[in-house]
TrEMBL record:
<dbReference type="Pfam" id="PF01451">
    <property type="entry name" value="LMWPc"/>
</dbReference>
<keyword id="KW-0059">Arsenical resistance</keyword>
<dbReference type="InterPro" id="IPR023485">
    <property type="entry name" value="Ptyr_pPase"/>
</dbReference>
<protein>
    <submittedName>
        <fullName>Protein tyrosine phosphatase</fullName>
    </submittedName>
</protein>
<dbReference type="GO" id="GO:0046685">
    <property type="term" value="P:response to arsenic-containing substance"/>
</dbReference>
<dbReference type="InterPro" id="IPR036196">
    <property type="entry name" value="Ptyr_pPase_sf"/>
</dbReference>
<feature type="domain" description="Phosphotyrosine protein phosphatase I">
    <location>
        <begin position="4"/>
        <end position="141"/>
    </location>
</feature>
Length: 145
């Protein structure tokens, strides 16, 4: 059986989609091919996101945000395209041929958190925990088969 292909999409591929990709890779191992991309990619993964993911043992320091449109132009095919932010709705994402499932999981934007450094870190940790919980749940039956 071919591996299921999953693409996580958000606006800048600097936070939520990177978290989701990393958690699914850890959770599912080799059961899935997983990538993430953004509509308007940032120059780098957010430092606070790298920090909170490192706390989970996941190193995002070498990850570079990529464009969802570049993947589309390369002719990539996915079984699941999952938008993880409000701006990456089905209407604003390219149509990937052969996609069997499109999901929308809105999460707060780590780039938009405000407050003291400690408050910002706590908010990004909370977003990380929401992403982890959401990612692990729907794919569990796929990995048990």
């Amino acid at each position: 059986m071919d591996k299921l292909k999953v693409l996580f999409v958000c606006s800048r591929n600097a936070g939520r989609s990177q978290m989701a990709e990393a958690f699914l890779r850890r959770f599912a191992g080799d059961a899935f091919e997983v990538e993430s991309a953004g509509l308007d990619p940032a120059p780098e993964v957010l430092p606070l996101v790298r920090q909170v993911m490192a706390e989970e043992g996941l190193d995002l320091s070498g990850k570079k945000p990529q464009s969802v449109f570049d993947l589309f132009r390369q002719g990539r095919l996915y079984d699941y395209v999952i938008a993880v932010c409000d701006t990456a709705t089905a209407e604003s994402c390219p149509v990937f041929p052969g996609v069997t499932q499109r999901w929308r999981w809105p999460f707060p934007d780590p780039e938009a958190v405000a407050g003291t450094p400690e408050e910002r870190l706590a908010k990004v940790r909370a977003i990380r925990d929401m992403v982890r919980e959401k990612v692990e749940r729907p794919f569990s039956e796929q990995t048990e088969a």
